[in-house]
Amino acid sequence: MDRATRITFLAMLVVLAVAPFVLYPIFLMKVLCFALFACAFNLLVGYVGLLSFGHAAFFGSAGYVTAYTVKMWGLPPELGILLGAATGAGLGLVIGWLAIRRQGIYFAMITLALSQIVFFYALQAPWTGGEDGIQSVPRGHLFGLIDLHDPMAMYFTVAAIFVLGFLFVYRVIHSPFGQVLKAIRENEPRAISLGYETDRYKLLAFVLSATLAGLAGGTKSLVFQLASLTDVQWQMSGEVVLMTLVGGLGTIFGPIVGAAVIVTMQNYLAEFGSWVTIIQGFIFVVCVLTFRRGIVGEIIGRFGPKGAAPTGGGH
Amino acid sequence: MAGEYILETRDLTKEFIGFVAVRKVNLRVRRHSIHALIGPNGAGKTTVFNLLTKFLRPTGGQILYNGQDITHTKPAAIARSGMVRSFQISAVFPHLSVRENVRIALQRPLGTSFHFWKPERSLEALHARAEELIEDVGLTQYRTAVAGELPYGRKRALEIATTLALEPEMMLLDEPMAGMGQEDIGRIADLIRRVAKNRTVLMVEHNMSVVAQLSDTITVLQRGEILAEGPYADVSRNPAVVEAYMGTGHG
Known about the structure:
heterodimer, A: mainly alpha, globular, B: alpha/beta, Rossmann fold, 5-stranded antiparallel beta sheet, 11 strands
């Protein structure tokens, strides 16, 4: 990590350690789950330039699988969450394999269509509980030792998962594989002409992103002890786009800031009822018009080193 | 493998709906030569290029590279077999540094390109070779600059360095001089002549003095068909070529 990134990362760790003593832990856990989800999404749109409009499928399905296996099979929470991530990976492999054959808007449309199929399945299948979802999921004991019904224990578990997920994304971006991803984002025909089978790289990136989205979704279902249709429906796919854009596409901290902003807004504006959507839409418009690189993107663009500004790979 | 011709096409044809862009082109590129493909706008030069490197699929005919039929090979595989192309507009990775651009080409043979768990540091072993290539094209002072901020001529030099990193047996250059100033043209022409030693170069180019200066053989295309072929001196005197392409004012 370069110096600025390391300092920001350490500051983030400090905030994570102090926050639950100041703020409501459930709220913080919600922010962290969405932040991880947005980081996963950003890996794909910000560093490969693939705009998926179906990421809710991975997030939501993982939630169902974690909730079901923990509640019905009595699996320990760590296994349930891992199965959630594996669900994201498996679905990501299928949806990614079908979608990466197309580019731009067609790619987005295929991911949307396939995620709608997943939504329909979640609505109809008996084991997902239809409109009710899977409720009162026990959080269980982590590694058979730590009782996750204690909010602080749950919080630090979620924080640890988030930090590991974040570091994983960072490593992927700064790996030999990440270099090829950037090359594909910048100029795909050139990457092909240098001998790279770009579809395989895109597919692996898609699967990694879906896996992390699954990890986030599984974790969230334990936090709220609930898996429901909210997390698989297309609005959720839209929300993660919004979080990433507001925070800063293609910046490593952007999605975290974006998730925090959007979740906070939803929490504090909840009293306005359905007006939240309109206020969100307004903020989105302002964001696109005034700071197109997102909050973090603008900060880097203004104060960071030359050439460090994010590139906004989504097209 | 050491046949006289490195690249051959047999009745190469590309038909778009209702329009034949390339019609039965039989092209033969001699090993270790510089071969230019010229022709008026819309003659099908770039289409031929895209067919040869498999960015387009031919609707008829065959392409042979080193005696092997590559008509149905994928573009990335063509690149790995030693035939590397450039593009009409400069093809650099604009937000990566000059050194990273070259490194992208160097890293594939390491076999770690799918290793998402390895640190970027593992690529630093390639820096020495990358810097050699960068020096070769005269970009040493720019090696840490962001590629997108280089002047146009330098971008093309970077592109050649990146291509050379693959140690291609054959280079296909799509209008290497397009949009370039006079002083850059001289430098890039020298560079092409230098890198063409022990290699084969096939290029599409509009700048006639460059074509005359560099090429061993010229193929003139018109409306998707070969109109004439031979050394510059012969081709430029061919009345059909003069009429179709060069105009009466030329030479």
